[in-house]
User: What shape does this take?
Amino acid sequence: MAQNLSDLTTLHVGGPAKRVVHVHTEEELITTVKQCDESNEPLLILGSGSNVLVGDLGFDGTVLIVETRGNSYEIDACSGGTLQVAAGENWDKFVEFTISKDLANLECLSGIPGTVGGAPIQNIGAYGHEVAEVIARIRTYDRKKKEIHTFMASDCDFSYRSSIFKKEPERYVILDVTFQLRRGETSLPIQYEELASSLNVQVGERVAIAKVREAVLGLRAKKGMLYSDQNWSAGSFFTNPIISSDSAAKLPADAPRWPQPDGTIKTSAAWLMEHAGVHKGESLSGAKISDKHVLALMNSGSATADDIAGLARAARSKVKDKFGITLEPEVQFVGVSL
Assistant: This one.
């Protein structure tokens, strides 16, 4: 019997897959990918299913669930920690592990759903930090050349919520990721006022990494950004827009503006949505804007993929009509679009 992808995604929507394969070793992962490619079988690779919206018709091909496990690490008092981690490892459990070893620089990325292998694809980030800052190298299987290829961080084309792996989604399969972390019990300077306030410190101060993790988890929970049995979502649905300085100048004076190194300006998707008339708690059939944060689009229990896409489409249209800015989705779309 075909398995519905609603059972395999955090939004709990999606129709049936023709075949679902769970792989637990690197060899199984590469072998399955090769078999699909050689037979021209459509292939969808998932980790925890936390950043994907699958259409109601499902996926007419093989869905490969990456469940590889394991890590190796070396910790030096001077150079810090070098950790090579399998793609299928749970991201937040990995962050928790690093903090238990007094390794810093991942604490602000606590609570982000997904797997280690998914983190570099999206270049996940929060509270002023991105995973690209601590990646040393990434081992992949190159589906085009049919060989193992290792990327150094400088080769990954990292940018805001993007990478070469996102830009060429059908080519590289991430096998493991090597991180270089700083040895220490205190964080980098806190950059965001919201996080500083939660920690009861000033922006720029350093805090124990365990306390930063606790505060970040608390903030994400308040915003409805932590996945649970009572919160079926994909986290932030849209990325923060990066716009020209001319476009930023046309926004209201109180709109958030974060200057970027190339002269562009990042602004807040949540601010744009709220000021364009998108309200917390509004719904479309079974899809709902979270009561806690407008960026969290949820399945309230009976949503279809079309419901969630429709709600996202309506929110994006309001922002476009009000500010002339088109919000870009953070989630991956399979068999559905805006």
